[in-house]
Amino acid sequence: MTSTPSENQRVVVVTGAASGVGHATATMFRDAGDVVFALDVNPTVPDGVTYVETNVAIKASVDAAIAVCAQYGRIDVLANVAGIVQFGRFEQIDEAEYDRVLAVNLKGPFLLTQAALPHLKAAKGCVVNVSSVAGRVPQPYAAAYGASKGGLTQLTKNLALELVPTGVRVNAICPGTIDTPMVSKVAESYPTDLEPRISERLFMQMPGAIPPGDIAAAIGYLASPAAAYVTGTVLAIDGLMS
């Protein structure tokens, strides 16, 4: 058990905290002095946070993790960052792969938010979901991934509307290409024979990949008192990809 939070500390839950945006986000909240629970299947989370082994696609695992995170009776911030990237031709996506993408990217935030909701209500806290540019506009070879992120974007809006009376805010961030090892690995196998009209639209954007810290900073804003009147917002950080 971590030390009891002071009045100025928030209880923050970050999924996917072992790498990329999740790691940067957990680090940011830790550095702000918050009590941070880092949920992941991988234990390589930032120092100074509490690691909770969690498979976000499995309800029993999520429920057990939230029980640990809610030990102080409240959760102030839930950052649903965990996700997997999948690109490939539609006709080559098998059922198991499709199910896995939706389970992690869409079912995971659903399970986490539902389990955490009583504790978020107690704190009048907030949820920040990390969606994607693929949840806003079509992306080549991203049928499964786009479906999962489009669903997460709409889930965010629906929950924001439903939860207004409780004081719980729900927002989403839709990043473009992020500079993470996971994205780089997928990019190596990305189909290269794009039609000119698709390629032209896809790359009509600011050059370079987005540092994970930039996305973490946006999560920090949406979780802050400065965003007290921000809910149901989908914030694009994509260099004009959408």
TrEMBL record:
Please report a single Pfam family linked to this protein. Answer: adh_short_C2
This protein's superkingdom? Bacteria
Q: Has UniProt tagged this entry with the keyword Membrane?
A: no
Read off the InterPro entries from this record: NAD(P)-bd_dom_sf (IPR036291), Sc_DH/Rdtase_CS (IPR020904), SDR_DHRS6-like (IPR051122), SDR_fam (IPR002347)
Q: Which UniProt keywords apply?
A: Oxidoreductase
Q: Name one GO molecular function term.
A: oxidoreductase activity
The entry sums up its family as follows: Belongs to the short-chain dehydrogenases/reductases (SDR) family.
Q: Under which name does UniProt file this protein? A: NAD(P)-dependent dehydrogenase, short-chain alcohol dehydrogenase family
